[in-house]
Amino acid sequence: MKRKLLVAISVFISFNLSAQEQVKEWTLQECVNVALENNLGVRRSIYSVQSSKISLTQAKMAFLPTLNANSSYGENYGRALNPVTNLFVNRNASTININGNSSLTLFNGLRLQNSFRQTNRDYEASNYDLTKAKNDVIINVVTIYTTVIFNKELLNNATYQLNSSVQQLERIKKQVAAGALPKSNELNQEATVATNEVTVINQENALNISMLQLKQALQLPSSTAMDVQVPDIALEDLILDQDPQAVYAIAKETMPEIQSAMLRVESAKLALSASKGSLYPRLSLNAGAQSNYSSVSNAERYQVTGSALGTSPIGEVGNTGVPVYSYVPVRTLVSESYNQRDQLKDNLFKSLSLQLSIPIFNGLQTRSAVQRAAITSELALISQKETENTLRQSIETAYNDAYAASKTYAASQKQVRAREEAYRMNQQRFEAGALSIVEFQISENDLFQSKTELTRAKYNFIFKKKVLDFYQGKKIEF
């Protein structure tokens, strides 16, 4: 039975090991790439860039003349006007009207030029906003990735302590069975093992939660099997070589939120200039052409060739008896068919004009728009200052945290070395019967606690240092 049980346990362990080998270990760069590809905020920023690009193209095309064409077709019933003779006829008719017009703005207070410059700044700012969205995703992934590594280290420490306490329990059981120690020592050690088991369970839960947060940051389902690589980072690789002022000076030149805020200020100023352009006269060049057709004139085509006296007098000059005759147009038949093509060609009308529009009074709409644009410009300056202050404060906080974490990490290293030596000596004394089980457990717990604090200080330092590197335009990698 024992052999069968051992075989079953071996098969179970082998199965678990093979399953764990199939779990992919993700690097930080792989996590960042997947997060950037799946993040909805980044996708939204991409569409904002595309929208800004469309607005920029529209602003470019505004310099070109407009061109529009219209046409209509209708059926008239009953009395209608013959567009050729301008005489009314009582018959059904079909009509076609075609017209086109074009307009070119010659001057409008430089509104077109300033609007183009404004949309160009907005397009550049949207690209920086996209970079900022990506940076936020990267920082979030790095934070969670570091937390996962931290929890893995804590789980390893807790597992090590549990194994140590289990081995100690086996030795105490043998000593109790031999009568060298009282039963209370065995019971106390069993309580210690149970406490360490709870610690392991809590650390496993913390690791699982951080892994779930990482999957959520990557927009992956919770059922995705994944693990992370634990990098080996030495203390000498984590040296603060820049003060907060130097880091801030570099960040002002590289961070996309600062560049975007500056471009938004320029955009607001250009919008104000464009709005002021509405106060100036507007000069435009207009051109048009139109023609029409009516089926009333389809039957015959006449041309006026002169005039002739009417056949009957229409009056006399004073009382002289001299008759007065009227002159009537003389129309000559040109063709018996007057089709659509001929009518549209003959009825073509063209026009070319200059139009000057001078704003005098429109209910203060233009001046109100200028005033609102001026306020928007001032608000953009405030937003830029807020962005700079937020960046500076974040850098100062990150630097102070990193500096404190470096000191804590160095002190924790010394503490761990001292407690490891104390634990080794106390273990020898305990095995020799010169130290009580309670004192030995205190020494063991102190060692575990110091290792936990060392791990916490280490990864806190790692994260804060990486954030400072990020503000200096360096790539975050382990």
Number of strands: 12
Content of β-strand? 15-25%
CA gyration radius, whole angstroms: 45 Å
What low-confidence regions span 5 or more consecutive residues with pLDDT below 50? 1-20
Number of helices: 10
Fraction of residues in helix: 55-70%
Class of secondary structure makeup: alpha+beta
Largest sheet: 4 strands, antiparallel
Shape summary: elongated
Strands of the widest sheet, in order across it, are 2-5-7-12
Topology pattern, helix = H, strand = E:
HEHHEEEEHHEHHEEEEEHEHH
Task: Describe this protein's structure.
- It is a single chain.
- With about 475 residues, the chain is of the alpha+beta class.
- It is built from 10 helices and 12 strands.
- β9 (about 315) and β10 (about 320-325) form a beta hairpin.
- α4 (about 110-175) packs antiparallel against α5.
- The longest helix has about 70 residues, at about 110-175.
- Mean pLDDT is about 85; it is low at about 1-20.
Topology:
Elements: H1 2-22, E1 24-26, H2 28-38, H3 40-61, E2 66-76, E3 79-81, E4 88-90, E5 93-107, H4 111-177, H5 183-217, E6 226-228, H6 244-254, H7 256-276, E7 282-294, E8 301-309, E9 315-317, E10 322-324, E11 327-335, H8 340-346, E12 349-357, H9 365-431, H10 437-471
Parallel strand pairs: 1-6
Antiparallel strand pairs: 2-5, 3-4, 5-7, 7-12, 8-11, 9-10
Helix pairs in contact: 2-4, 3-4, 4-5, 4-7, 4-10, 6-9, 7-9, 9-10
